[in-house]
Amino acid sequence: MNGIATLLISRPKTTAAAAAATAALTAAWLASGLGLLGTLTASAVAAAYTAAAATAWRGSLTGRRRREARRSAADTVAYLAADLAAGTDPARAIAAIEADWPRGAATTTRRLATAWVVAAELGAPAAELCRRLAEHLREDEQAAARARAQTASIHATAALLTALPAAGVALGEALGVGAVAFLFATLPGLACLAAAMALQAAGLAWTRTLIRSVGVEAA
């Protein structure tokens, strides 16, 4: 799983395309008894949902890594402030944190660079500036964590509403209704399927808008 996650981060398009192709071939094999229309529809639906799932997973992984980078950067800035307060030479203090500075903390890097410029040009105490910056970074992370906790129910509701249609189709198939054959191999079924997918996409887009409106990264 870690290998797939790494590939998804480093080569998102290739990994998502490979997963979608695999899902499409598997769906085509499973739906081979539904005729050409049913096979093609099953392949397209499987590929679309797999690509969407891969994209969402990558967004979740990227957001998690970005949050970890910000937390690590805040800790590193705090260590830098402590070193400077202890009288360490600024050049040596900066060199000491370079190896531990996390990737993905571009915003923190800019803020630290700004504080360093202010200290150099205006004579402000670098240790105090770095200490305050570390405090602000931790406060920002705490606020973001509270916002994520408050929007957790929105994530859960979106996941539930996304899974319910598939569960309904599976239940209908178990009861012998022939839901899969209707949806994939008939024109009325295709219309229902297209409408359902469009509504799902609209619902997910609305959910992302709600989450971003409170300043939380949408996964």
- Report the principal-axis shape: elongated
Report the count of strand segments. 0
Cα-to-Cα separation, first versus last residue: 18 Å
Average of per-residue pLDDT values: 83
Helix content: over 70%
Could you explain the architecture of this structure?
The structure is a single chain. The protein has 219 residues and is an all-alpha fold. The protein folds into two domains: 2-67 and 149-213, no CATH class; 72-140, no CATH class. The chain has nine helices and no strands. The protein has helices at 2-10, 12-30, 35-85, 90-98, 106-122, 126-150, 152-174, 179-185, 187-213. Helix 1 (2-10) packs across helix 2 (12-30), helix 3 (35-85) runs antiparallel to helix 4 (90-98) and helix 3 (35-85) crosses helix 8 (179-185). The protein is elongated, with a radius of gyration of 25 Å.
Core attributes:
single chain; 219 residues; mainly alpha; 2 domains; 9 helices
Walk me through the topology:
Blueprint: H1 2-10, H2 12-30, H3 35-85, H4 90-98, H5 106-122, H6 126-150, H7 152-174, H8 179-185, H9 187-213
Helix pairs in contact: 1-2, 2-3, 3-4, 3-6, 3-8, 5-6, 7-9, 8-9
Give a brief rundown of this model:
By secondary structure, the protein is mainly α. It has helices at about 1-10, 10-30, 35-85, 90-100, 105-120, 125-150, 150-175, 180-185, 185-215.
